[in-house]
Amino acid sequence: MPELLDAMGLGKASFYNAFASKHAAFLTVLDCYFSAVDHVLARALEGVKNRDEAAACLLDAILTVARDPEGRTVWRGCLIGNTALEMGARDETVRNRLNQGVRLLRRHFAKALSLADSDGRVLPDSAVSALALHAVAGIQGILVLAKAGMLEEELRAAKQTLLLTLKASPLI
Questions:
Q1: Does the residue 9 lie in any domain?
Q2: DSSP 8-state symbol, 1
Q3: Is 57 within a domain?
Q4: pLDDT of 172 above 60
Q5: What is the pLDDT of residues 94-140, one digit of tens each?
């Protein structure tokens, strides 16, 4: 708590005047994170013309956000995945909020996967929904592996394999 207050430039009284509790502050942090991720992913899809390019752009955007920009560690991960692993099983309010974040990721992947491929083919809605969930699960898994210290070339291979599964999936 002292580090948080120092970083915010607040005293305890000011913090608790702004937030009812540390839990309430954390829920606000999650909401701010979701808003920032939503903006980053929406920008990643700007001007994208086909499904394969769009999926690759989203994965790259998520991996960029998950890297530590200050270089203290290579990977800071995704607040959705990090929080799910740490708190999801024991805090229903946080778990419900995390589901909002997962829906946000799914929505962006569904938008990307709804585009036609380079040959002009469009997936049916049922395939888009299933593949969007698969993409979210896949990128979260890659982020966990990154935080666990997987080598860069293995992470790139995992990303490429995820892209191939999204591309090669049959028209359901």
A1: no
A2: -
A3: yes
A4: no
A5: 999 999 999 999 999 999 999 999 889 999 999 999 999 999 999 99
Confidence band, pLDDT 50/70/90 cuts, at residue 170:
low
Instruction: Measure the CA–CA gap between 88 and 82, rounded to whole angstroms.
Output: 9
Q: What is the b/e burial string over 47-85, where b = at least 16 CB atoms within 10 angstroms of the residue's CB? A: ebeebbbbbbbbbebbbebbeeeeeeeebbbbbbbbbbe
Bridge partners of residue 147, in order along the sequence = none
Which sign does the torsion angle of CA 72, 159, 82, 48 carry? positive
Total structural domains in the chain?
1
8 A C-beta contact, residue 115 and residue 48: yes
- What is the domain range of residue 33? 23-171
The angle at the Cα of 37, spanning 154 to 146, to the nearest 5 degrees, equals 20
What's residue 160's pLDDT?
A: 96
Residue 75, beta-bridge partner list: 67
15 in any annotated domain:
no
CATH of the domain at 102: 1.10.357.10
